[in-house]
Write a structure and sequence with these properties.
The protein is of the alpha/beta class. The protein is built from 1 helix and 13 strands; from the N terminus they run αβββββββββββββ. A 7-stranded mixed β-sheet has the order 1-4-6-8-10-12-13. It has a 6-stranded mixed β-sheet with strand order 2-3-5-7-9-11, with no helix packed on it. β2 (57-59) and β3 form a beta hairpin. It is globular, with a radius of gyration of 21 Å. 27% of the residues are buried.
């Protein structure tokens, strides 16, 4: 019995280490695609077993990455599809950098994601429809980029969404008003080329009896 428990423990430990190593590989690719003029990623030693001692990275008790905090870091470069493999990630904070290129659709695989803050970068292309899969997302800030195309209707299905800012992009087409989007005011969509929100005539006053 004791031998069986020991084997199970070793197997779980090996699996956990393999997962951590996989996340190191993901972040290695991410780092390789960034330009880091002030060496804020200097502690990202890819020879380590897991990334939990790195600055700007937070892990949970299982040594899985749950936060990446790299806002205001003067980073440029691109996001990589491999970020979608960080399946425990809850916060992706990359605001106020000079990151360009497209938002990878693989970000939509981050089912635990609570906050996606990519505002004030140089991102272009469309907002991936797959972001609608982020059904735990509460904060979505993509403002001050160069995003174009329509706002995906899939985003309106995220019932947990509390803060939305898509302003100051190059978005076109209609502004969805259904689902969670019924909560947001025009300021969330300002300074785009979007169709005006529909206006409704005031309800008629009741006739005096």
């Amino acid at each position: 019995m004791a031998t069986s428990l020991l084997c199970l423990f070793l197997a779980l430990a090996t699996l956990s280490q393999a997962s951590a190593n996989g996340e190191v590989e993901v972040l290695k690719v991410f780092k390789a695609n960034l330009v880091d003029p002030y060496n804020v990623l200097e502690s990202w030693d890819v020879t380590l077993v897991n990334p939990c001692t790195w600055f700007h990275v937070t892990c949970n008790a299982k040594n899985r990455v749950v936060r990446i905090d790299l806002g205001d870091a003067s980073l440029s470069g691109r996001l990589v599809p491999q970020l979608g493999q960080l399946r425990s990630l809850q916060y992706l904070e990359l605001f106020n950098n000079r990151i360009s290129g497209a938002i990878p659709r693989e970000i939509g695989k981050l089912k635990e994601l609570v906050s996606l803050d990519l505002y004030r970068n140089r991102l272009s292309g469309s907002i991936p429809d797959k972001l609608g899969n982020l059904q735990r997302l509460r904060f979505l800030r993509l403002n001050y980029n160069y995003l174009s195309g329509h706002i995906p209707m899939s985003l309106t299905t995220i019932t947990t969404l509390q803060v939305l800012d898509l302003s100051n992009n190059k978005l076109t087409g209609p502004i969805p008003v259904n689902g969670s989007f019924s909560l947001f005011t025009p300021i969330s969509f300002a300074n785009n080329s979007l169709d005006p929100l529909p206006t409704f005539p005031p309800s008629p006053s009741p006739s005096p009896s």
